[in-house]
Amino acid sequence: MAEQVLTEISVLRTSPLAHLQSALEQGAVQGDRGVSVSEIAFMTQIGLRAEPGTAAHVALAAATGVGLPAAVGQVAGDANGTAVLWSGPDEFLLVAPDGTEFLDDLLSALGQEPGQVVDLSANRTVIELSGPSARAVLEKGCPADLHPRSFTKGTAITTVLGPVPVLLWKSAEDTFRLLPRASFADYTARWLLDAMAEFASAPID
Amino acid sequence: MMLIECPWCGPRNETEYGYGGEAHVAYPADPSALNDNEWAKYLFYRKNPKGLFAERWVHSAGCRRWFNAVRDTVTYEFKAVYKPDEPQPIKTTNAPAQGGTK
């Protein structure tokens, strides 16, 4: 028997919401009160830690190409390319499209300085919720203030959706990205589908 | 719903936080010199005042950082929050020892 060597193992990947693909598509609501949900699978995610004001922070900020966010809610970069989310005073999450090779650059930029660069791509998945009713869906279970006056486009916070800890990122107007841990992805997606269902009917005054 | 102000994240719902008990309980200078009674006092005995009380809180669903807060145990009102390296803004009966804020 011929020996088979698999050189490209990425074909074996299964995203945390692959089994719900068709349910997510069927759950979409059209119209004025529309809202739809989808998974953006396999995004590159790298956890960065460096104390602001240190050489490590300066080096990592330069290596990301978009800097590092300075305070809560801020996102460096933009949702279509590389973005760095603030998750703590010395803790950041770099999010980039699938296939982006960043880890080695960041690791060599950090060098021996005190800090951390860890590949967390499999830690969380990205769920995108968009449509005019997206905010109303989230407000059923997220205690954070999502009104546009405080939660503007390009803002990301760590909060909870129902019982699930998520990173919530407003990547565009009426579009939110939720980053739950992979093991919570199934629950989060089903929670969202349930919360979206009412918007298919006319509002009751 | 009660809003608690995190020194790093701003006001968030109380459900995002965890409670850490009394703040400013100093670690014994020489733990090996303590007898069982004194060690138990350090580990388990906490003040329970009526009124202003300095407490430790953790923003577990947010930035995951510990901070201190002065809370009125009668009204539940948070009077002040401060980072571990900041001086206590309001005096309480369990104020940090002289020369240290830990």
Automatic annotation (TrEMBL), chain A:
InterPro entries attached to this UniProt entry: SoxG, SoxG_het, TrmE/GcvT-like
Top-level lineage group: Bacteria
Native organism: Paeniglutamicibacter terrestris
Family annotation (Pfam families): SoxG (PF04268)
Transmembrane region(s): none
Cleaved signal peptide residues: none
Protein name in UniProt: Sarcosine oxidase subunit gamma family protein
From TrEMBL, chain B:
Matching Pfam families: SoxD
Domain of life: Bacteria
InterPro entries from the UniProt entry: SoxD (IPR006279), SoxD_sf (IPR038561)
Name by which UniProt lists this protein: Sarcosine oxidase subunit delta
Native source species: Paeniglutamicibacter terrestris
